[in-house]
Every structure is written in C-alpha cells, then in structure tokens.
Amino acid sequence: MSTKTMIVVGALVAVILAVLSRILVPVPMPEILLPAEKIVDLGFMAISNSILATWLTIIVLVVMFWLATRKMEMIPSGLQNFAEAIVEAALSFIEGIAGKENGRKFFALVATIFLFVITSNWLGLLPGFGTIGLFEHKDHGVVATQVGPLALIVPGQDQPSAEAQNDHGPAVQEGDTVMGVIVPFFRSANTDLNTTLALALVAFLMIEWWGAKAHGVWKYSSKFINVKGGPIGFVVGIIELVTEIARIISFSFRLFGNVFAGEVLLAVLMFLVPWLVVVPFFGLELFVGFIQALVFAMLTLVFSVVACAGHGEEHAKAH
Questions:
Q1: Which is higher by pLDDT, 90 or 274?
Q2: What distance in Å separates the CA atoms of residue 26 and residue 227, rounded to the nearest whole number?
C-alpha cells in the first residue's frame, strides 16, 4: 500500500471514528461563561470556583515543596532532587539575564509567578475541572436525571419531561428529568481575569519598587514626569507613564485570554467530537500552559531588569 493510500485510509478511519464517537458517546454542549461562577456566598464575600482552584494551586505547591524539603539530604533523591532541579534551573536562567546580584533579588517573585501560573494551568486540564459541580435548575442548559441530591447528565436527550417543566428546585422528585446548568467546583484560576489582574498588579508594583530603590524615588519618577526636558521631554515622560501602566493590561489580558480560549476550545471539541480529536489538543494545552507561564515570568524579569538598568554599572564603579 502506497503512502498516499495509507493517508487517505487513515483520514477516512478518523472521520468514521469521529462520527461514531459523536453518536455513541454524546457529550452535552457546555455553558461557556466569562465570569467565574459563585459556589458559596459568605455575605461579606463570595467564593467562586476560580478562587477554589487558586487555593488548590497554592496547596499543591506548598505541600510539594514541604515534602521535598522536610528531610533534606546532602545527596538529593526523589522529590528533593526534583525540587532542587527546578530551583537551580530557574535561578540559573534568571541570573543569566539579570546578573548574579539582581538575579537573586528578582528570583523569589519571578520563580513564584512561573510556578503558580504553570501549576494552575495544568491543574485546569485534570478531570473534574469544569465538569463536576452543583446543578442549578433552569429553563435552558443540559438535561439530567434527578438522583437524590445529585443530578446526572443524560446524554442525547434534548428536552426534559413534562413534569420537570413544571417542577423546579425542591419539588423535583427522584428520577425526574430536569434541565439546568452545571456550576463546576473548580475552574482554572487563570481563566478568571481577577486572578491574572492580581498577578499583574503584584508584578507591576514590585518592578516599580525595584526601579525606585535602584535609582532613588525622585530620579526614577523623573522618567515619567520630566519638567526639565521642555515640552518634548514632558510629552515623552507621559508616554513612558502610559506605557508603564499599560503593562498591567497586557499582562493580565494576555494570560487570561490564552488560558480561557484553550478551555473553550477543549470544551467545544469535546462536544463536537468526544474522546478522539480532543486528545492531541490536551497535549497542545500542556505546551501552551508552559509557554504562558514562561512568558509572564520572563516579561516580569525583563521589565525588572530595565527598571534597574544603569544601577549595576554605577554600583560596580563605586566599588
């Protein structure tokens, strides 16, 4: 069999399997919402599924590094070896760009941002994220069967029974067919703009703090409010100020947009072609999650180096 024939046969088999998977294993169309869904209302604040995912990310990182460092050995092995490899690779990478002195100063923030972003991105690909949660009875969404306090999705069914159209909430009996939407317990932290904005603000404030500390508050602020450079210098300073503040927007929306788009892509593909075409895209999202974490951390590092530019040379000459 020639290569061309094999490609054609392979494509036909893939199409047939895709059609069969759509018929035999139908998946309901997910409800795609931009804001994170509320899980618990405490009165003074609401706990959303993205906040729960953020806490889960923090717990995973804290537990992993606690287990890796609780019994330190001179010759590392197992989890300690893995953790030390991550720290050494990150420190070497950061020092290679910022230098030894500034690299160690920037290390804690840059490495923490990278580890938090990549962990939250990859956790969002685990089973249960976006699929297991509370079921809210509504006149639209997916069809499910009431089983005690739970609602199990019924694939392939389009409309609820006549009883469910009249009964909602506590009046629904076990075995009734109901319609509603799933409010997942966990949603990837970086699909919430609040999370990415918080990361961007932390990075922005630390960059400005390091710049002001390196050059002095007045000298550093003169880059943005330049009254001695005449009209042109003043305008250039305003442009610098706008550019600096715009980093917050670019930081937060870049990460949010890429992660949210990936989540929507996987959800739609799972609905269109369950279990087949979506598998390679999970691998793609693993790669994208790594790249987005690297880009966020890298930009934080580069902007920090730019903010402190010149200070290292002056410091060396002084010695």
A1: 90
A2: 66
